[in-house]
Amino acid sequence: MTDVDRLFRTYNTALVRYLTRRLGDRDWAEEVxxxxxxxxxxxxxxxxxxAWLFAVATNLVRDEARKASRQRRQxxxxxxxxxxxxxxxEEATLERAQEAALARKAIDVLAERDRLALLMRExxxxxxxxxxxxxxxxxxxxxxxxxARRRLVESYxxxxxxxxxxxxxxxx
Amino acid sequence: MQHPDEGTIxxxxxxxxxxxxxxxxxxxxxxxxxxxxxxxxxxxxIAASTRILTALxxxxxxxxxxxxxxxxAPVRRRRWYDRTDIRAAAALLIVxxxxxxxxxxxxxxxxxxxxxxxxxxxxxxxxxxxxxxxxKPAMEQSVAPQRAGNVAAGGSAAVTGINxxxxxxxxxxxxxxxxxxxxxxxTVAVPDVAEPRLAPPSVQSSISGVVKMTSKRGRLGDxxxxxxxxxxxxxxxxxxxxxxxxEGRVIDQRNEQGLATAQVVLPGSPLGALTDKDGRFSITNxxxxxxxxxxxxxxxxxxxxxxxxxDDGSVTANVVLAPQLTTLSQVVVxxxxxARTASSLSLRVKSVDSTSxxxxxxxxxxxxxxxxxxxTPVDSSRATEARWVAGGAVATALGATQxxxxxxxxxxxxxxxxxxxxxxSWTDRGRRFVLSGPVPxxxxxxxxxxxxxxxx
Lengths: 172, 456
Hints:
By secondary structure, chain A is an all-alpha fold. In chain A, 82% of the residues lie in helices and 0% in strands. Chain A has two domains: 1-86, Rna Polymerase Sigma Factor, Chain: A (Orthogonal Bundle), CATH 1.10.1740; 93-172, Orthogonal Bundle (Arc Repressor Mutant, subunit A). In chain A, helix 3 packs across helix 6. The model of chain A has no long low-confidence stretch (mean pLDDT 84). Chain B has four domains: 6-55, no CATH class; 80-237, no CATH class; 243-323, Sandwich (Immunoglobulin-like); 329-455, no CATH class. Chain B is 39% helix and 18% strand. Chain B has 16 helices and twelve strands. In chain B, helix 4 (84-106) packs parallel to helix 10 and helix 4 (84-106) packs antiparallel against helix 11 (223-237). The radius of gyration of chain B is 33 Å and the shape is elongated. At the A-B interface, helix 1, helix 2, helix 3, helix 4 and helix 5 of A face helix 1, helix 3 and helix 10 of B.
């Protein structure tokens, strides 16, 4: 078994989830993850492999994001056509979709670095790995995470409250 | 020591502080009311963040159009063979047909039977990841030309036969005819070579391994070949780490409503979740296969259920919890009990802390007016004294643990209008109660009556 096999097996799940949470698109996340592993293939050796993988994936996302803005218009057109032929996923109930949308909005409020640090932590990266991947000082990771968590929870709760009030108004 | 900042507390809770520093903070948080409140808050933030982020995993999937009528996309189209599971299935199929060849040849089969092996039906072998409905058309399309007839040996049977067949070949070291295998080479090699960029590395390597194997087959008769083959079979099996999702809902047997804050855990693992206000939960990264789930909630009978977690899929577990009658007598107020209070004073529960021997419940009897009920087993030596400070029910029970102090957050109670705090206490069935609040003693007596009614 080559080293990339091992890397893929060990980190693919976490990396794809991290990217899905970051990008909100599973297919896109899988593509970026694959690209990341292919880059790992070209490396002679990796000293801190998990930090390296997450850092490369993050950079790829940034590059992709630039391309994405150009392609967005085309995609909007395609989406229109797609809508006619696509099938609705069964398990995504309205409620859960709303929750996901709320969570998405809440995490969008965070600063990019805070968001990435939090998502990496959720995938089990330790502080030194996060510091390396994001080029932070190891001592500031705790502060970054505490700020990110507080911000996330507070904005989520605010959005939730807002929604509840809207629903109440709509009901009355 | 000086108070740790929020970042340090998070680092501590994340287990990222060196031991000496961690011990220092643990000791400090135990003594400092303010810091223990911060620690409690940080814990809450960490748990809530994880829960919110888990909701992000709920992205729509399976929106790939059915049928081939897709507009030509300027954006690269995802092809069926980009799918990891299809690739895994293909790799397995190749391994299966190759080994089938070996078996057949060994038993002195003619060339004709060898050719048949290529037509092994892609009936989803138990080991192959099941293809989702959306993939089926593509899959059938690709295999259809090859599918001529049924072969006696199914894909899985052939796979299990690999090792046996291989060792036989190793011993015999017989010359092999290469032609039958060449077809198998084509089927995978083509998509792989066409777009190598897209192949998930492990599959890529296992496929190329198979290709290598089939071409080498005639020449190799040593044990290296055996181990190579074996590792290929393993690789094909483990292409994806086998994880699934367990989700579902915990329901109260009495009213069939969702049950919030129930603990759902997989015993023996760090995995688990708390249910949300509708009783829903979702646990990701659960190793596929048979798992046990334990659902607990205070006041309810714990429940153990067995389930099978699919690889890369999810399993739904809806659990109905029955009220636990034996503990109900000890629990002062549960949600359902609160609903039964119909007399003059409302007993709205603001907060409950039952993490230590002393159970504290804060009730809001009218807006802004809160009374606190502390309940301790009489024989408990831990809380021999409770002192109540005017202006807020800040408890400094002797020997109180960190969680004891946590409830009486000055911020919560100090906001109440400063009034004389009255306290009454009594003992009932082996438990000592202390009720206090900024209300007349008569009101406290009335509340006591209500509370005692609830207990019966």
